């Protein structure tokens, strides 16, 4: 499944880049072909064709964005990511209205980057996996 089409989204990507990459500690990279934005190493937004997905909104902000902008959960093709609203983004002019929510997602990511990393959960080895 292809999530992002640069030919359709170039102007929007440029507008997002021009804004969010100026914020402190923001980096941009491609993941699964989509431009992704991280703050302090934590993902806070990414572009998909005709949309922007915010990964770190509070439940209240998700509900507000959902009702105000007709957001829907980001769909990976096999499952809907309920905590990641996808806001429809087809025109550069619409980005201005979304920026307060993008900024909130950014602030949450930046705050999370200051917290100590949690250790990875490891599954105990099953008997068949234990080397003797």
**Span of the ends, CA to CA:** 42 Å
Number of strands: 6
List unreliable stretches of 5+ residues.
none
Domain count: 1
Largest sheet: 6 strands, antiparallel
Widest beta sheet: strand line-up: 1-2-3-4-6-5
Q: Enumerate how many helices there are, as a single number.
A: 3
Order of helices and strands: HEEEEHEEH
How many whole angstroms does the radius of gyration measure? 17 Å
CATH level-1 class: Alpha Beta
**What's the architecture in CATH terms?**
Alpha-Beta Complex
Choose one word for the global shape.
Answer: globular
CATH topology: Aspartate Aminotransferase, domain 1
| Whole-number mean pLDDT | 87
The portion of residues forming beta strands comes to: 25-35%
* Portion in helices: 25-40%
Q: Assembly type of the shown chains?
A: single chain
What does this structure look like?
The chain has one domain: Alpha-Beta Complex (Aspartate Aminotransferase, domain 1). 36% of the residues lie in helices and 27% in strands. The protein has three helices and six strands. The relative contact order is 0.18. The model has no long low-confidence stretch (mean pLDDT 87).
What keywords describe this structure?
alpha+beta; Aspartate Aminotransferase, domain 1; 3 helices; 36% helix; globular
Describe the secondary-structure layout.
Layout: H1 6-20, E1 26-31, E2 34-39, E3 42-48, E4 51-54, H2 59-69, E5 72-75, E6 80-88, H3 92-113
Antiparallel strand pairs: 1-2, 2-3, 3-4, 4-6, 5-6
In short:
The protein is an alpha+beta fold and 132 residues long.
């Amino acid at each position: 499944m292809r999530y992002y089409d640069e030919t359709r989204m170039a102007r929007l990507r440029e507008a997002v880049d021009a804004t969010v990459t100026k914020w402190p500690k923001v980096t941009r990279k491609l993941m699964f072909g989509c431009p992704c934005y991280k703050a302090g190493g934590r993902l806070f937004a990414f572009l998909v064709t005709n949309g922007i997905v915010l990964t770190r909104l509070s439940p209240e902000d998700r509900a507000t964005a959902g009702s105000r902008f007709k957001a829907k959960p980001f769909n990976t093709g096999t499952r809907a990511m309920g905590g990641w609203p996808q806001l429809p983004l087809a025109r550069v002019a619409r980005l201005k209205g979304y920026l307060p929510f993008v900024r909130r997602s950014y602030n949450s990511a930046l705050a999370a980057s200051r917290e100590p990393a949690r250790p990875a959960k490891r599954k105990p080895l099953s008997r068949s996996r234990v080397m003797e």
